[in-house]
Amino acid sequence: MGMRRAKRHSVRMHLRSCLGRRAPPCREGPTAIAIVAVAAVLFGVAGPAVARADPHVGRKQVGTASVYARKLAGRKMADGAHLDPSAPVAASKTLPLGTEAKVTNLKTGRSTRVTIEDRGPYVKGRIVDLSPAAAAQIGITPKEGVAKVEVAPVREPPRSERRAD
Question: Which of 7, 29, 98, 114 has the smallest set of CB atoms within 10 Å of its CB?
Answer without folding.
Answer: 29
